[in-house]
Structure formats: C-alpha cells, structure tokens
Amino acid sequence: MLLKRIVAITGPPTIVAVAVLVFDACFTHVIFADSAEPRAQQTATRPYDMGVPETIRDADSFVPTGTLESQLRVRDYTVNTYDHACVGDEEQCGCFEVLKGKQRVYAVEARGYGFDPGGTSEGREDGGIIPPVGTDVTGDGQPDAVLLEETGGHENYLYILQIGGEFRPIEVLRIWGTPAFKDLNGDGVLEVLTWDETFMGWKCCNAYSPCPDVILSYCSGQYRVARDLMKRPSPPDAELRRKAAAIATSQDWSEYRGSWSFHDMLVATTRMDPCWRWGYDGVPPDLWREMLNLIYSGNQDKAMWFFDQAWKPGFRGKARFLKYFISNLQTSPYWAEIEELNRKRP
Ligand SMILES: [Ca+2]
Q1: What are phi and psi of 306, to 5 degrees?
Q2: Dist CA 177 CA 199 (whole Å)
Q3: How much distance in Å is there from the Cα of 214 to the middle of ligand 1?
C-alpha cells in the first residue's frame, strides 16, 4: 500500500488503513455481485461521470441557434450540430439536438467550443477518433451517437447517447483530449482509450509530463476503469533495474542552490532544450513516468521499489517528493479505481 510506504518513510503510523474488498460484477477476476449499488455512491468513486449534463434544456422549448454545421441521420433519428461564433465574453459557442422523427428528444448547449459528432471527420490531431453516429458502441445491438464537446482546455466532454428503439442518454464522461474507441477484448463492446493528465505540468513542463493510459469499459450501464484490461504483469526486475540505474545516474538531477548554477545554465543552453528536461525540484520526470506506468498497470509495490532504486543516492527531498507524488496521484479522477486495481486479493 502506498500509505504504508509513506508512513515507513515519514515516521510512525498514525492512520490505520482498512482494506475493504469491493466485489464487482464487471470484471471476471472477482466474485459477482448485484449492481444495485446506489448511483450516487458509484459516482463518488467515478468523478469523471458527469451524469446528465446540467446544460440540458427542456427539449420542447429549446430553440437551436447558430449555423447548422452537421446533420447526421440514422433510421428515424437526426443529430444536428450548430455552430455560433463566440463573441466577447460569451462562453457558449454551439449546441446540438437529437430529433426522433420530428420530435426533439435531446438538446444541449456547449460549455466550450461546440460539438463534434462521430462520422464527420477522419481521426483527429491527437490520435483519437469518435465512432460514426449510428455505431453500436455499447454492444447491446442498439445504435448509439457519440459527440465530443471541446471546451478549449485540456478537458472535454464525451456524450454517449442511445438512438435505438428508445432514446436514452447513456453517460457524459469528462475526459482529456479525444479518446479512441476499440474493442480490445472481442466482446462486441467498444472500450474507450484515454489517458490521465493529473500529472500534466507537475514539477516539470507539459512536454515532459507523463500521462498514463487509461481504458474505460462499459458495464452494468456505465463506463468504468477497465481494471481487467489495464492489469499487466510488471516488466522483469532486470529491465526495471536497468531503467532505475539510468535515472539514478542521470545528469538531469539538478540541485537547486538558491539560484541556478553556472552548470545548470550551461546544461540547459548546450542542450538547446526549450523545455527543462529535469523537474522543477531537480528530479528527472522519467522517475515518476515509470512509477505511474507501474501503478496504472496494477504494480504499485514495484513502483515503490523502483522509486527507491531510481532515486539518486544522497539527493535531498526524497520523502517530501514521495509525499507530494502520492497527494497528486490521489487527485486523479481515476484514483479510486486505480487504487482498487492495485489492491491485493486473497
Ligand atoms: Ca448500443
């Protein structure tokens, strides 16, 4: 456990962590349980689940504004997206509506730059792709519509709506960038391949910030971290030792001495590096990149072992660094499920 580890480094234990086994119907390696757990409780562990968006309007009284940007028809459904220019401080720059026959069944106004429905573009700059409107993404035989709402920041919103015999908003997910959709385990349900930007800009510039991969899968009516697909064996110890030694002996450790030393400036200049390679605490980002890769594949113990191996002997601030690393990790929207991924089972 991370908690035990940090206690071991920082002093005597003051908190006793009690591991509670949560049985889950979505993953094959645990005992099956009823999915009747209250929705609010499930959402608390899944802060990326936006539920039904607050921006939904009464569909009957909704009047779309702006220019019709795309119109996609699947059976008796029509998905229209509208674009209208953001002027001044105006924050809402688009909207979309879903019609069943002539009746409007859903309408949403943008919080950011508008909506991008699947099927209107091939792939995207960041490598993601939204499946065409009408694709059955949830594997229940009913067509779905997926729209990406771009906010202009790193965070986007992903609308997943069922447009089958019955219209049903399935979920709105808060995600970073554009995800990819892929059936990774051949069960006919598309997984959502995304990443975690909790460590973006943490102790180093964005370009060197590690963003571990995250897979979400649809199960029991909602998207959840696919622990069974993210779990992987740890790389062999010999390989981790090699990586750890390379980090521990790297020239990127940079002791801050109240001002940048001539050596630091020389290194930065000679590398012509527009972005510091080392972290702002003088710790190379490769250290926590590897730790995150291990934790996000269910190998937390190995991550802690790696941390010990890769920390430059004698370099100050080791316990403090680990404390802040863990605090930041716990702010991840996926943390509760990543923690569960790392929990040992009898
Ligand atoms: Ca479906």
Answers
A1: -60, -40
A2: 15
A3: 22
